[in-house]
Amino acid sequence: MAIGSKLPHVGTTIFTVMSRMASEEGAINLSQGFPGFGADPVLLELVGKYTRDGYNQYPPMSGIPQLRRRLAEKTELTQIYFPDPETEVTIVSGATEALFSAVTAVVRPGDEVVLLEPAYDSYEPAVTLNGGVPVYVPLNAEDFSVDWERVEKALSPKTRLIMVNSPHNPSGYVWTEEDIDSLATLVRDRDIYLVSDEVYEHITFDGRKHISLGSHPELRNKTFVCGSFGKTFHVTGWKIGYCIAPSDMTVEFRKIHQFLTFTTVTPIQYALAEYLEEPNRYLSIPAFYQSKRDLFAGGLTRTGLIFTPARGSFFQLASYGHLSQIGDRELAERMTRRLKVACIPVSVFYSDRRDDKFIRFCFAKEEAELFEALERLQGLPEIL
């Protein structure tokens, strides 16, 4: 029997493809967004402690109370508002689940959802699987900021949701207070929900501060804030994230969550709850990653690529159009095979595969690996 795919245009993600190619070619993998170093040994020991102490059965569906409380306290410290741990905070199995559950909670067949492109690849499938209609709005080509006039023109009576991402993947753009205020003005008199992907909330540079949509008094009442402990604490394989939303929206969110994954691994929740007792464990993260960004950006200046240092996230975009007009995917594959450095072609973040000759590197790696990758990238002109 033919299944009849609900996602006929979706194949294996480019992140999996490039990581596999990097492995096969023995290349340094700067493609998929995961750290190339381990977590704090203190956190690892806490996981072991709670595993050994018998915290291995189902936790509450919404997450253990201790972790929800710690997350609310972290939010109050960094974003100056305190979500109710009981009714507004939910622990989930990764930010991708949070995003999917949030979209599923509010999007109905025929609803329009605004996606700002380039966009992370899980957004559109979540919309499509729920019968929604993606409406694509390109970000400004110069710096990947939001063109608010374009966004307003894209809205219609059918608009149900706008997907937001800051710090942005793949560009590293970080929303400003002006961006937040512009969004608030846009949705003020409209029945539009917001899903805010904030997984890189603690990875911002040059003194910039991440501003959560939840910190804005008006936007808070319309927003699902989705975050990731995995990204924050270098443990992406643990797949543990969260959603913060108003109580009425959380009720609907949890209805989806409980039949999607039901709950999230128990000993890790207890470990994170204890680990979060010390705020410096997340407040020190910007400086940690800025040193890696600065190292990588410094070396990238010697490759012939053009770039603006990322404002946030652990990704660096670079333009090569002044050197060659070959396709970005072809270049990514050629770099992996010949230079032994894997990256991501940015065209995959666009619905129409628009190719503006950008590639994306992940610099969340050990210094020695970054130095070696930068050395190999000096040979880029020879393969173009």
UniProtKB/TrEMBL annotation:
Its cofactor is pyridoxal 5'-phosphate. Residues 28-377 form the Aminotransferase class I/classII large domain. InterPro entries: Aminotransferase_I/II_large, Kynurenine-oxoglutarate_AT, PyrdxlP-dep_Trfase, PyrdxlP-dep_Trfase_major, PyrdxlP-dep_Trfase_small. Keywords: Aminotransferase, Pyridoxal phosphate, Transferase. Transmembrane segments: none annotated. Pfam families: Aminotran_1_2. The keyword Transferase applies. It comes from the Bacteria. Gene3D superfamilies: Aspartate Aminotransferase, domain 1, Type I PLP-dependent aspartate aminotransferase-like (Major domain). GO terms for molecular function: transaminase activity. This is Aminotransferase class I/II-fold pyridoxal phosphate-dependent enzyme.
